[in-house]
Amino acid sequence: MFKNSNRINRIEKSFYDLLSSRIKGSLVNEDIRKVTLINIFAIFGLFYLLFYSYRMYLSGDYNLSIIYIFVAGVVLSMQVLLRYSRRVTLSSHIFVLSLFCLELYFLFRNGSTILHVKSYYIFPGIYWYYIFPLLSLFLFGRKIGTFYNIVLIAITICFFSIDSPMTQLYDMELKVRFLSIYSLIFFFAFFFESIRVVTFDAFLKMQEKNVEYSRRIMDKNKDLRRTNKELLMLSEEVRVQMEYHKDLNVMLEVKNEKIVSQNQQLEIQSNEIADQRDLLLIQKQNITDSILYASHIQKALLPSDDIMNDIFSDHFILNKPRDIIGGDFYYVKKVDNTLVLAVADCTGHGVPGALLSMLGISYLNEIIHTKELSETNAILNEMRDKIKLALHQSNQTREAKDGMDMALIAIDLDSKILKYSGANNPIYIIRDSELIELKADKMPIGIQPNEKPHFTNLEFQLRKNDSIYLFSDGYPDQIDKETMKKFSLKNFQSLLLSITNLNMADQRDELEKVIEGWRKNADQTDDILVVGVRI
After folding, report:
1. Which of 249, 284, 417, 508 is 20 to 30 A (C-alpha) from 293?
2. 276 and 313 housed in the same domain
3. What's the structural domain count of the chain?
4. Is 417 helix (H, G, I), strand (E, B) or coil?
């Protein structure tokens, strides 16, 4: 029985080495996953190619038989190259291009073959098409895989659209069926690959957390072992003293009993600490999982890029919560011919800030959808009333001053008139390398002593190529861990002026690069949110 088990293990190892081309690791490794996928397709492809080469030889179609043998040779050469050089990317391109060329060959060949049956029943080689989106997307991912599929289907559509003897067997019913099935398989493969990438990224993050937790546990265990060693040394010293001081035996016995009692108490405490540590780890994991899920919900509530893309051809959103979820949020809504855009900074970070942000998004939706508010300050006035009511704020001395800072603009898309109101948060407009600041009222959306009865409404006539920036205080308030200085609004303004000639996507990258360099891998001190649009 033991010999049979060893034989089975050797067979399994040999089979795994064959599929993985002897690359060490598990299927979690991206290269091993691709190599295994290539080898599985290659093995079945070789069997198919050699079988149909023999069939074509028997039927007298020697040219097709030779082509099958040539493609089989290419696939086999690719496997040898992969096994000895382990160039996964090159082997993937060879394999996909071989299948690409074989499919195009069948497309042209079948189109010029004269048979005595309906064309949509004689499509043997073209069905290789249905393997192509699965293989290309699973090997190269969504970008390169989609490129290969677009090129292949574009050539196919162009070929179908040509009225010639080479396409006489492809009637409209066949074309519609083929393109529909191909599109369905492509979208299924694209969706599956997207889910796989997201799941794999989440798995890697979880692995990193597990490694970090294991390291911390090992450090704790080292400290406990060191403590136990010190206690053992103390016990040994007491034993030696008992041997050399018999006259003090009674006193030493009493002390020894105390030491034993202390050891028992330390052991009990050590066990309690270990239990509490395990419980804390479990609770931390549960809390982290909940916060991760909450971050997906919070992201889903934020506006998608589609809304901005429909209105602005050039824009960016830099959103970096300090924790997994944060209190900064942005809001975009188009009502008739007016665009409403807001950036808000809620009190607190993490879960408390996220709860306030969800409350703010909900109230903005309610105010803009249910009331005809023509001025931006009316929206902020209404927001302040609702926040006070929701948080039961009555201007008592000891109550929490929770609320949010916000910059809110409304742009008439016809007249290009911008209306702005701000609660502590200004906005910047850059025109012809000059920065124009629209200042905010020095009061939040929430309770504050000596607050003004109404927010101020400002108007500004926009021009083409004006750049508008809305932001929270997180970016200028980031601290350099060496000098303990903030980045400051002055440096932020200078940075915006220096990058104003770049497109918005490059501006976002530059803003992120600069603030990460400023932090120098230190902990982020606040949520960061910057939104930029170009008229």
Report:
1. 508
2. no
3. 3
4. strand
Q: Supply the DSSP symbol for 302.
A: S
Classified as helix, coil or strand, 377 is helix
Q: Which residue has the tokens 């052991």?
A: 267
- Residues of the chain above pLDDT 70, percent: 78
Q: Which residue has the higher pLDDT, 383 or 292?
A: 383
**Tens-place pLDDT, residues 38-64:** 777 777 777 777 877 787 778 777 777
Pair (128, 225) in one structural domain: no
Q: Does 409 lie in the same domain as 344?
A: yes
Tell me: do 154 and 255 sit in the same domain: no
- Read off the pTM: 0.51
pLDDT band at residue 110 under the 50/70/90 scheme: low
Same domain, 121 and 249: no
- Alpha-carbon distance of 151 to 132, in angstroms, equals 12
Q: Which tens digit of pLDDT belongs to each residue from 428-455?
A: 999 998 999 999 999 999 888 888 889 9
For residue 65, CA distances in Å to 70, 94, 204 come to 9, 21, 47
Half-sphere exposure of 16 (CA within 13 A, CB side): 12
Tokens of 511: 């803003």
CA distance to 126, 194, 218, per residue, from 145 (Å): 19, 12, 44
Alpha carbon distance 280, 278 (integer Å): 5
Q: Identify the domain containing residue 518 by its residue range.
A: 303-534
> What is the separation of C-alpha 520 from the centre of its chain, rounded to a whole number of angstroms?
23
Per-residue pLDDT, averaged over 360-378, amounts to 83
Phi, psi of 485 (to 5 degrees): -105, 150
Q: Please say which residue of 179, 200, 221 terminates a domain.
A: 200
Q: Are strands 467-471 and 328-335 parallel, antiparallel or unpaired?
A: unpaired
pLDDT interval class at 180 (50, 70, 90): confident
